[in-house]
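As a warm-up, study this chain.
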Amino acid sequence: MALGRPLGPPAGRRQIDRLLDLLAAAGFNDFREARGPLGLTQRQGAGRFTHQEADELISRLEAESDGLEPPPRTGRVRQSAAEKAVASASSEMLAAELQRRGWVVLEP
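Now compare it with the structure written out below.
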C-alpha cells in the first residue's frame, strides 16, 4: 500500500450524499468541519472515503442520531499522550500511583 492510499474501493455518490445529510443533521457544514470532532483523517476531511469507511461512519452517525450507542469503531482510534501512557503502564505501577494519591486499591 502506498502512503496515504485508501484500502478498498471508493465510496459511491449515494453514500457521500447520505453522509453529508447526516453531518448536516449533526450540525456540521461539511467533512472538514466534522474532521476533528468525529476523528476523521485528512483524506476523509476532504470527502474521500472507501466504501467500508463510509458504511461505518453512516452506521455511527445514524446510531447517534437515534440516541443509541454507536457501534465500536474498527479503524485506528486516536489516543492522547496521557491515554497512551496509562495503556502502556503496568498494573502495579498504576496501583502504586493511585495509592500515592490516596486511593484504596484492591486486586480483583
